[in-house]
Amino acid sequence: MKILAIEDEPELAEVIRKSLEKELYLVEHAEDFETAMEKISLYKYDCILLDIMLPGGSGMDILAELKKKDGGENVIIISAKDSLDDKLAGLDLGADDYLTKPFHIAELNARIKAVFRRKNLNGSNQLTIKNAVLDLNEREFKVDDLLLELNRKEFDILNYFMVNKNRLITKSALAEHVWGDHIDQADNFDFIYYQIKNLRKKLQSTHAQFEIQSIYGVGYKLVEL
Amino acid sequence: MKLLNQSLKYLSVSIFLIVTIWSAIFYINMLDEIHDSIDDGLDNYKLLIIKRTEKDGQVLEKRDFEEGNFTIHQITEKEALGMRDYFTDTLLYMENEDDLEPVRMLTSAFKHGDDYYQLTVFNSTVEEDDLIEDLFYSIIWLYIILVASIVLINNVVLQRLWKPFYLLLGDLKAFRIDKESPVPIVKGDTKEFKELELAVNSLIIHARETYSSQKKFTENASHELQTPLAIISTKLELMLEKESLDPENAEIVGQILQTIQRLTRLNKSLLLLTKIENRQFSENSEISINQVVARSVEDLKEFADYKEVKILVDNSCEIQVKMDENLASILVSNLIRNAIFHNSDGGNVTITLVENSLRIRNSGKLTALDSEKIFTRFHKETQKSSSTGLGLAIVHAICKLYGFHVSYSFDGKHCFEVKMS
Q1: H or E stretch at A25
Q2: Domain shared by B374 and B330, yes or no
Q3: In chain A, which residues have their Cβ closer than 8 Å to the Cβ of B300?
Q4: B141 lies in which domain range?
Q5: Looking at the structure, do residues B266 and B317 belong to the same domain, yes or no?
Q6: CATH code at position B403
Q7: A23 min Cα distance to partner chain B (Å)
Q8: Does residue B351 sit within a domain?
Q9: CA B321, B282, A179 angle in degrees (round to 5)?
Q10: How many domains does chain B have?
């Protein structure tokens, strides 16, 4: 999978690249409008991470160019502007998703995977880790074909963990993803600990070959056993 | 005290003083003039009587006043020579009044042949107490009439003259620096008011510039902070994923990350506040507050469970509001979250939807909060460091944007009420 990160902030581009390489993607970087236009005209990418405000031009023009070529790339807009107008305009122009800076890398990871999954959908929409299968269409979780009842939020948490296998998920990333945009003002993530505890208990009743580990009080990580 | 009444106060006091002094002087002068005129008359009368004594010796025999207003007594030469004409004020019995009345009396001496006589003539004069009384009442009337006419003139003239001032004052009272209303204008061409208008307007323009540059600063600062914050937190997240990191250091990195995330939250809240105040939310649609409440309660269920707080929702009324969906959910969830967060363990939250009004009551601290301050930025009731102190400021800003009224009251429980109409 080849990804092009169009981002003028070199440090941010660097962390994005490092993070995505962990998922075994091939990541290239363009730091201004000209380089980006050159790269998209020369090469083909599976996914493009697009910053709107770029030196030399607007990311929107790159998006328009991509859609004109119709190369089938997925585009995720990454913008510092949390503006609904930009979001609507971007999605209108054919972007697949819109992410506001600052974002958690787990969130970016989840968005990229969701975009790929949607693209490569062959009737089913499933996440599999060893003997466990999470069906996103049916919203079902099965271990060894045995159904485990999960409530809506438990399902969302597990989904997030499975997408970000072996990756650190901070409590605030989890809170934002599962409880919505503004829950991060909850000022207190202790309740997440109880959610995870409950989820672990349910998982232990199955023979799922993975577990959710705590990472230094900051967050959690799903690892295969 | 109104300007009108102030000027009236000074005018009435000074008029009172002027009228009092004037009437005293007037009284003295008038009395003097009366005495003068009576004295002249008496002098003349004296001369006439003395002339008559030369023709008619009988006159010299008049010992009592009776019908003529004079008496004549014989006196010794020594007495006569030691005597000067003198006037006295005295009382005499008057037939018509059946009472003693004040008279002016002239006592004089004259020589008739070789004898000396003392002549006393009198004339009735003004009764001073009557005069003072009459004068007093007229002065009182004069004073009342003067003050009344000043009130009248003041009211009509001043109110007409000051009209532009009061209009300007009304404009200024209604003026809000964060609204793009035009600067107030003074009608008419009174120089002082024109100058006032100029001064007020330059003040307003200056204040507006300061206000908008301050607002811009908050917005720009928050925006500029986004990227560095994103870089720091993602780098730290990557660092924590490294297997090589030993637990002790990882712990520290974790703490830094949490602090950075707090900073990010704070920054996000500030940006949100700025956006609300800059009216950058214009996607208004019909929102059912009941649904927003239900969703928020569902979202916050785990948080409430963790705090062992019971949430009761009373949907006795359907509330429909035209507003931005995002802001509606922030408004409601901030209030509910606040009610859970500041609750006591095992406490409760009652959410009541009544006619155009959302009430959220929660148990918690047993003393009232400072209702003046809770809606201001960065005001923290608790020392819980993880609180941004912006939650209620955001609620307040949203309410202000839509003309809602949010208030706080305490009756053993903390009650927040948002009137949406």
Answers
A1: none
A2: yes
A3: 179, 183, 186
A4: 3-145
A5: no
A6: 3.30.565.10
A7: 13
A8: yes
A9: 70
A10: 3
Domain-embedded: residue B38: yes
Residue A148 has phi, psi (to 5 degrees) of -115, 125
Instruction: Judge whether B267 lies within some domain.
Output: yes
A217 shares contact with chain B (CB less than 8 Å): yes
Q: Specify whether B120 is located in the same domain as B10.
A: yes
Q: How many other C-beta atoms can be found within 10 angstroms of the C-beta atom of residue A216?
A: 19
Contacts of A163 (CB under 8 A, 6+ apart): A109, A110, A113, A114, A127
At A80, which amino acid appears? A
Which DSSP helix (H) or strand (E) runs through A36?
helix A33-42
**B374 half-sphere exposure, CB direction, 13 A CA radius:** 19
Give me the pLDDT at residue B326, please.
86
**C-alpha–C-alpha distance, residues A57 and A48, integer Å:** 17
Nearest to A169 by CA among A223, A221, A212: A221
Say whether both B349 and B392 belong to one domain.
Answer: yes
Residues B210 and B306 in one domain: no
Residue B164 lies in a domain: no
Instruction: Give the SS3 label for residue B411.
Output: coil
The reply to whether residue B241 touches residue A106, judged by beta carbons under 8 angstroms, is: no
Between residues B138 and A70, the one the model is more confident about: B138
Return d(Cα B16, Cα B140) in angstroms, integer. Answer: 9
Residue of A nearest to B240 (CA): A168
Q: Looking at residues B189-200, what average pLDDT do you find?
A: 89
Of B275, B306, B331, the residue at which a domain comes to its end is B275
Q: Which two tokens stand for residue B52?
A: 């008559």
Q: Which CATH number characterizes residue B124's domain?
A: 3.30.450
Q: Is the ipTM of this complex over 0.90?
A: no
Q: What type of residue is A170? A: T
What are B161-191's pLDDT values in tens digits? 888 888 888 888 888 777 777 888 888 888 9
Note which residues in 231-290 of chain B have CB less than 8 A from chain A. Answer: 231, 233-235, 237-238, 240-241, 247, 250-251, 253-255, 257-258, 261, 264-265, 268-269, 271, 275, 280-281, 283
First to last CA, chain A: 26
